Structure formats: structure tokens, C-alpha cells
Amino acid sequence: MNIHIGCAYTIGKSWKNYDATPTAVLEKIPLIGKIIKINQKRFPRELIYGDITRKLLSPKNEAQNIFCSHVLEHLSNDEMKNALNNIYQMLKPNGCFRLIVPNLENRVKKYIDDKDANNFIEKLGMGQKNINNNIFSKIKSLFGNTKHLWMYDYDSLSLELRKVGFINIRNCNFGDSQIEVFSEIEEKNRFIDDNGMPEICIECTK
Fold it and tell me: Nearest-CA neighbor of 91 among 50, 59, 47, 123?
């Protein structure tokens, strides 16, 4: 069993593809789903609603591989810890977990170099540039979950993985997995930021 957490529009044919966006649930409701359009395009039918912070998305020790790209930064620090604990329980012994989050260290270094505070806050994804002064923007903000709630560097995230029990923790890159199914869902642009610098990309095992 392969579990893709926070899949959004990226669906792997060999994976169970989960996302916790309420929008995907609304879109599947007859009539209401046809009327409401929050995003430019609708989520794939294969998407399964599931919140990794609240429960396991598979029985314990049944997932061979788990992938999670640009999800943990949208969770509070406590929710991140719940998510990692649930992921660890889902994995089989020796199962593989690959994850990507924005690179806090690189964003800080860029700010120190260019002293552009506005760009720094925007790239952190933690500020709010515009006022939600119309009903559409308020609804989108409510259901979109686009803000970053916590940021990581390699050391801080590696420490959280070790606390849960993960081993063989290492930096990884796009396409470097020896496990073929990851090629179905990994996207090169998710491994780098807007400036072509690497994000925090980690592979580990149980």
C-alpha cells in the first residue's frame, strides 16, 4: 500500500491519494458541488478526504511507502507532531517516507543578502498582504488552508523525525529514489523554490 498525503491535483495510479481540503468534500456533494467553485479547477475524483493530523489513513504497519509534499508547513507545530506519529504507525517496518517542506534557512539567507523584508514575509507564506474584503476571498481563505503555520530547516525537521523513531534520515533529490512508484507523484518543481534553491527534501525509513 502506498499513501500520498496532501495530494491536491497530483494523483498516482499506484497510490491512495489523500487531502484534507474541505473544498474537495464540497465538490462531491450533488448540486452544491456543481454550483460552488472555489479554485480555478476542481479536484480529481480519485482524491480521498483524509486528515493525517486526526487519524491514521491506513491500518498500522500496512503502508510500504508514504509521500508528503508541502503539507507540514500548513500545520501547527503540534499538528505536525501528530502527523509524523501517525505516519510512523502506518508504515511497515523498513517502509519508506519521503517528504518536502519549504526551506527556512535559504529564505533567511536570501533576506540577509537582499534586505527585502516584504519579499521575505511573502516567501515565508506566513503573512497576509491583502484584506479579505469580499465574500469570495473570505470563503477561499476559509477553505483553502494556504497559509504557512510553521517553518523548518533540515536540522529541526530531522530532529522531529528522530523523536518519532524514523531512521536512515537523509537529504533526497527529485528522482533519486530506488522505489519506482515515487516517480508517479514526485514533481521536480516541488523540490526547489522560486530561485532554484533546494527545499528541505528528506527520505527516511521506519
Answer: 59
